[in-house]
Design goal:
This protein is α+β, with helices and mostly antiparallel strands and about 280 residues long. Among the domains are: about 80-155, Muramoyl-pentapeptide Carboxypeptidase, domain 1; about 165-284, Alpha-Beta Complex (endopeptidase fold (from Nostoc punctiforme)). About 30% of the residues lie in helices and about 20% in strands. It is built from eight helices and ten strands. The strands form three sheets. The protein has a six-stranded antiparallel sheet with strand order 5-10-6-7-8-9. Helix 6 packs across helix 7. The protein is elongated, with a radius of gyration of 47 Å. Pfam families: NLPC_P60, PG_binding_1. This is Peptidoglycan endopeptidase.
C-alpha cells in the first residue's frame, strides 16, 4: 500500500547505524584511556581575564589580575624612634617620649627598668643625675650629660657629690626650719629663738636639720664646700664679702636671688633679696 511504503522508507532514512558499522580511528589517533599530560613549565602567575564587550562601537575591555610582587617591607620610623635608636657615640639629644635602644641604654645607666620609652620617670631621674654632677638640669640629654652618663655607666658610679638623696632631703629641712623662725628678733650674739645674729641663725637652722656649723660666719665659710652661684641650690649657705674678700654676713639661700637671714638690729628674721654681687656660696 502506498502508505506502508512511505513509512518503511522514512524508517530506513532515520535509522541509526549499528556499532559494527562504525569505523574507529587507529594508530596514533587512538586516545583510549590516555591520561592528560601536565605541562613541564609552570603556568604563569598572572591570570588574564579578557572580556570582550561591545561598548559604543565594539571596544573591548581587558581586565588583568596578577599577584603583588614580593618585596621587602619598609618601615617608616618616627622622629622619636630615630632619636631613640641613634648611636650612643653621636650623643643624641633624647627627650620626652623618645623610644628605642639608646633610650634603654640611658635607663640602664640610671638604674631604671629599661623599657625603651623616655617617660616621666626617666626625665625625673635624669634631672636628679644632672643635679648631682653640677650639670644644667633639663631632664634631657646633651653632650655634657652624655659625657658624665657614659663615665658613670663604665665606673658604676651613679650619683655625683651633690646628688645623694640625703642631701636633697637635708636642704628641704633647712628651708623648712628657716621659715619657721620668720619674725624672730635680731640679737647680737644670739643663738636661740629668743633672738639671733646672722651666724647664730644659720647655725641653729642647720643643727635642727641635722648638721652642725661653726659659730661665726667666717668659720662657717671655711667649713663649707665652695660652689658657684649657678650650682647653688635652695638650702645652701650664701656668704657676703667685703671689698677685701673677708666674710661679714651669712644667710640661707632661698633661690631666685633671695635668702633667709637675720640681718641687723631692729629687723627680724625674714626672706629678702640678695642686694649685692659680692657673694659666695657654700654647701655642707
Amino acid at each position: 500500500m502506498p502508505v506502508t511504503a512511505r513509512r518503511t522508507s522514512l524508517s530506513r532514512a532515520v535509522s541509526q547505524p549499528s556499532e559494527a558499522s562504525i569505523v574507529r580511528p587507529t594508530g596514533r589517533t587512538l586516545a583510549k584511556h590516555r591520561k592528560p599530560t601536565k605541562s613541564g613549565a609552570p603556568r604563569a602567575a598572572a591570570a588574564v581575564l579578557s572580556v570582550g564587550l561591545a561598548v559604543g562601537g565594539g571596544a573591548a575591555i581587558s581586565v588583568t589580575t596578577s599577584p603583588a610582587p614580593a618585596s621587602a617591607a619598609t618601615t617608616t620610623l618616627t622622629p622619636a624612634q630615630i632619636r631613640g635608636n641613634a648611636p650612643i657615640n653621636s650623643h643624641p639629644y633624647l627627650r620626652f617620649r623618645d623610644k628605642g635602644k639608646t633610650v634603654s641604654y640611658v635607663q640602664r645607666a640610671l638604674h631604671l627598668g629599661p623599657d625603651g620609652y623616655f617617660g616621666t620617670s626617666t626625665v625625673n631621674t635624669l634631672a636628679k643625675f644632672q643635679r648631682s654632677w653640677g650639670i644644667r638640669v633639663t631632664g634631657y640629654t646633651d653632650p655634657k650629660t652624655w659625657g658624665r652618663l657614659t663615665w658613670a655607666a663604665k665606673h658604676k658610679v651613679l650619683w655625683g657629690p651633690y646628688g645623694k638623696s640625703t642631701t636633697t632631703t637635708f636642704r628641704a629641712k633647712v628651708l623648712k626650719e628657716a621659715a619657721k623662725l620668720k619674725g624672730t628678733p635680731y640679737r647680737y650674739g644670739g643663738t636661740t629663738p629668743r633672738g639671733f645674729d646672722c651666724s647664730g641663725y644659720t647655725g641653729y637652722v642647720y643643727k635642727k636639720a641635722g648638721k652642725k656649723l661653726p659659730r661665726t660666719s667666717r668659720a662657717q665659710y671655711s667649713a663649707t664646700k665652695h660652689i658657684s652661684r649657678k650650682s647653688a641650690k635652695p638650702g645652701d649657705l650664701v656668704f657676703f664679702k667685703s671689698g677685701g674678700g673677708s666674710v661679714y654676713h651669712v644667710g640661707i639661700y632661698a633661690g631666685g636671688n633671695l635668702l633667709w637671714h637675720a640681718s641687723k638690729p631692729g629687723r627680724p628674721v625674714a626672706k629678702a633679696k640678695i642686694w649685692t654681687s659680692s657673694v659666695a656660696f657654700g654647701r655642707v
